[in-house]
Amino acid sequence: MDASIPDRAGEASGDNVAAFGQEALDAALAVGAGRAALLLLNGVSVAEAHAATGVLRSVDIVETLAESLGGGRVAILAPHLRETGGAADLAARLLGALPAATRTTAAIGIAVAPEDGGHWQSLLETADRAAHRATQYSEGRFAFADDARDRRWRVGPLLPGAIAEALARDEFSLRFQPITDLATGRVSGAETLLRWRRTSGEDWPPAIFIPEAERRGLMEPITIWTFDAAARAAVELSAVGPIGINLSAAMLGQGAVEIVTGIVKKASVVPHAFNIEITETAPFLNEADAIADVEALAALGCGIAIDDFGAGQASLSYAVKLPATRIKLDASLVYAAEDNPRARAAIRATAALAAEVGADVVAEGVRDQAMADQMLGLGVSKGQGRHFGAPMRFDAFKKHAGLD
Questions:
Q1: Half-sphere exposure of 276 toward its Cβ, with a 13 Å CA cutoff?
Q2: DSSP string covering 143-186, please?
Q3: Which one of 144, 171, 316, 339 has the fewest CB atoms closer than 10 angstroms to its CB?
Q4: What domains, with CATH codes, occur in the chain?
Q5: CA dist., res. 375 & res. 382, Å (int)
Q6: In the prediction, which pLDDT does 54 show?
Q7: Residue 383 in 3-state DSSP?
Q8: Can you give 232-251 as a three-state secondary structure string?
């Protein structure tokens, strides 16, 4: 046990439990540069908690509180916490270190100081609410008290095992959002969007699990599945137009070309059936291997789309450096054009630039016909957004595109 955290086994009982808890918390915050997590284990014996803490680093079990809280609850203070996600990682490791029989019934509630306050009693109450939430999960039974942090931070620690399970249980699926020719109103392609519904009933949105998978180096199996599924769909959608597939920048220089080449051959689909979408905000501009991969994919025959164009700081650099065949205007820029002449000028200039280099322009987030007409008037040839159709399942998209 870290000597900087008070150890007063046997002293904390009755009225002085809260006082000792506050003293322990203050000490944890002092050694943790003002940050600490309280992990409240429900349904775990003191002996099991002691054994489980062997997997933790810089974590202190408050033994007296473990014995005094009652109700099968054990409190653990974790200083040296750099970010909120670290508390979720600790909770996941704790669960994994518990005996198998306990793991399925135990629940861990997480409260973090200073976000949840700096007082022991308020942290304990928050952790208690979080532990109750955790009991509602059939897997990964740890939780934060509020929805926002729970959705943001629970997914990452579970990803390594969950991806393999998702592939085995067929939990991934694709949605297809139409891309429409603004002049004719005809569907001219689609963007594929990955969805993940766990067999436990939880929906894990890509905005949460993709960044976590990138951070943890877990994008390869997700990328392979996505391209394989999109390739099989593209065979049936060849009469409509190319299928846009989002490629994580984390895969550039890390096998993306080999993956795409292998899947194209396996599915017997022509490379130009793909528009590989690379987000304009991806931080890879100066990485030679990444640029080389984009050029190799273009040489293979795939279309290259710069996604979210106008949302970041490097738009013109991307347009110059990448062999783009499509520029997708970020919805924020499209919305701004309604009443901002500078936004309209930027879109008009982008359309002119695209025409010079042989690319087309897609306006994202088109909400109504007036916005579609405005984009067409600014030189944009295609639109995407709920005005033309929300992301839909494959069969529904085929019907929408007139193939059924």
A1: 30
A2: EESSHHHHHHHSHHHHHHHHHHHHHHHT-EEEEEEEEEETTT--
A3: 339
A4: 16-153 (3.30.70), 158-400 (3.20.20.450)
A5: 8
A6: 76
A7: strand
A8: HHHHHCCCCCCEEEECCHHH
